Amino acid sequence: MNNLLLKNIIRFVLLILVQVFLLNKMNLSGYINPYAYLLFILLLPVNINRSGLLILAFFTGLTIDLFGNTLGLHAAATVLLAFLRPRVINLFFSNIEFTGDDEPGLPIIGVGGFFRYALVLVFVHHAFLFFLEIFSFSNFPDTLYRIIFSTLVSTLVIMIIVLLFTRKSK
Questions:
Q1: Which of 4, 19, 68, 133 has the highest count of CB atoms within 10 angstroms of its CB?
Q2: Contact assessment for residue 117 and residue 155, using Cβ atoms and an 8 Å cutoff
């Protein structure tokens, strides 16, 4: 089995388990919902086939939906994240030439670059997810607070995971 495939399968399983059994059980004042499973989509190779990326995103979101009984909300939001991911990579990192199976991770784009990349995509995901969930603009301030706080906490959790599990280059 290909080393990259095995690494991504393990990453998928571990992030789903952390999300379902740890983060989904946390109640942080009702406004904060950290979603670390998005890291799986964020760290897929840059040159992945676009259709494959969307299918993986759908499957990832659907897995969270099955465990959380959320009827496709995560699948839709995760597909939007995957759809926008290549554009965000091109926008922020057009000066970097990615080759082969390069991931948009810390060794290539740095801590600041990864933070911007993750923050933008997590914000889009959360905005779409929470507005789909509420399906109304009637309670806009509460939804906006929820989007902002959840985006910040999710990005912080993602950054902590990435910093802890990224090998230092020699």
A1: 19
A2: no
